[in-house]
Design brief:
The complex is a heterodimer.
Chain A lengths: L31 H9 L2 H23 L4 H17 L1 H14 L3 E5 L2 H14 L4 E4 L3 H5 L2 H6 L4 E4 L2 H8 L16 H11 L9 H18 L2 E4 L3 E3 L4 E6 L3 H7 L3 E7 L3 E2 L5 H12 L7 E5 L7 E7 L3 H4 L16 H5 L1 H6 L10 H11 L16 H5 L6 H14 L5 H14 L2 H17 L2 H4 L20 H8 L8
Chain B lengths: L2 H11 L21 H11 L3 E2 L10 H8 L4 E3 L24 E5 L2 E3 L4 E5 H4 L4 H4 L2 E6 L4 E2 L2 H4 L4 H4 L2 E5 L4 E2 L7 E2 L6 E6 L9
The chains are: A alpha/beta, B alpha/beta.
Chain lengths: 488, 201
Amino acid sequence: MSGPPDSHTVIGGPREPQPRGAKVRPGWPIDQSEAADRFIAAPRHLQNHDTRLWTLRQNRDRIAHGIEEWEELRELASQIKEHTLAHLDHYLEMFEANAKANGIHVHWAADAAEHNRIVHQILDEHGARSLIKSKSMLTEECAMRPYLEGFGIEVIETDLGERIQQLDDEDPSHVVVPAVHKLRADVAEVFSKTIGTDPNNDDVHYLAEQQRETTRPLILQADAGMTGCNFAIAETGTFVVCTNEGNADLSANVPPLHIASIGIEKLIPRIEHLGVFVRLLSRSALGTPITQYTSHFRAPREGGEMHVVLVDNGRSERLGMDEFWTSLKCIRCGACMNTCPVYRRSGGLSYGATYSGPIGIILDPTFNRTKYSALPFSSSLNGSCSNVCPVKINIHEQIFAWRRVMAETHEIPLMKQAMMKAAGELLSSPALYRAAVSGADAALRTLPKFIVYNRLNTWTRAREMPKAPDHTFHDWWKANREKTEVQP
Amino acid sequence: MSARDAILERIRSHRPSGEHPLPESPDFTRPSGDVQARFVERLERMGGEVLPPDGSGDMLAPLRTRLAAAGRVCSAAPEIEGNVDLDAIARPHDLADVDISVARAAFGVAETGSVLFTEAELRVNAMAYLAQHLVVLVDPADIVESTQHAYRSPLFHQARYVACHSGPSATADIEGVLIHGAQGVRSLTVVFVPRSDASLR
């Protein structure tokens, strides 16, 4: 992975406070671009974030280009996932049967609340008061940590980035690098207030070492351990967890009790398919050939106890959405986030959701259509996300489709709706369109800025509108080409 | 209706249209020539190290020298005797103050510089994570070419636990600065030693 950033690129001056995420107002759509504005107004954070994620994207390209069969692997991964999703009932039953035969306790949760209840019940039955866990987007999605803390259970994140976010009482901003939006000075401030580090020391080695030293006793004292799951193998009942820190293996192998939360879309049919997905995952995520640790759990260790919770939480509903079901192929590598110009310049917290960036835009509305109704507009639709996706999800097309859904279900903000309605009527009639274009261009030249640069017109806010051409293409064609046009 | 049955029923009623056959996965592996050299190159790229032989003819001599200078040593490999008795370990926590753990890899993977262990190689799984440093004995004959080959191993159908280590614990979660030893071992060192009779599977 990349080394320390070039110190010459750091902008001088007093410490820049960390921009915070989207403002959440119950009943109102998240205004991603408002939060993005505040991120852009913090130049040091912006530069670090943009540079770091673009470096990951470049690393991904370099390593992918070194593998001749890269495009074949993506196609295979896509087909294997689509096959599994189309037969998900079959593979879930197979996974369950094999896991049970191996001595794993298998639970099913229809939604986040049921997942949290099940985990609490397992902990309660074992008298467990503390839980160490590795990073899991699913437990974030279920808001499990605050739920368990409500029962007085101490939950300790053991991934460094996730631990930073936990101690700062902030959501992860990226599925792979949760604290990528923070500068070392931000981390130094969080650690000085929570684990007692020297507030004036923001040396990265010092900060990481302090976290190691203060987390270790908590790992040793924990009553239970928890992991997520990257891949669940139907034919063996195995679940696979990929980390770079080895923290999932500590969580799983030190306490006597191991609970794994598994989204039902994580299934793949056979062990041999890991030879496709493991090759794609870290190369797409970080540009490394593999994660430092790839751990395969098939059965509890001797004397240990293992539980898995298979979680639906909206996934089976998504499976029935013609245009959006293939978003379930996602393996959470974050490549679409790293490449997205909007994400890189606005930070994951600006989306106000568990999943951010391009994949977040197409997942989040399935959880709450009104709250995330404006997110599909936070995209330039450049298609880069779809091009890097290791399982070939047509992300940018789904973003566009969500815009249409929002329009049809009246979820788009009033101003945007009025603008699109006018455009729609115009575009539905070629004659009207041609008659109106010169007028519209004239309007672009003469409309008062308060209309074009309206707050709700997100993507003109940080840029000038294009200069209207002096003549329309049609005018030009009529004058220059029409009379010489050859009829077929 | 149970959550299980409700979920399965919803999945059945929402089945995507189309055939979606399961594709065959071709073997993409190309022979790389010197498998061991490729393994070393990839291992070092992942932050792992190799302890070279000292020319004495005893391939374990450099390791014994290193271990003699260490404090608590825990070994699951029959070739090396530690000073922490794994049979006397009541709970994984008893390994918390181990300096160096030693284990033999079930096999290695050249494509990624990985070493793989099951519970049989580690005896107490946590030994490979709680120690400050991990030393791995690898028989060069046990290195397979690719990740795809690795997944043909019967161990994935037999072992309770298969851990694939590619270098030591690492993080770059703060400004992308690479740190080894985020939570687990700070270093991973490979020593090439053919299996002795005692450690034959």
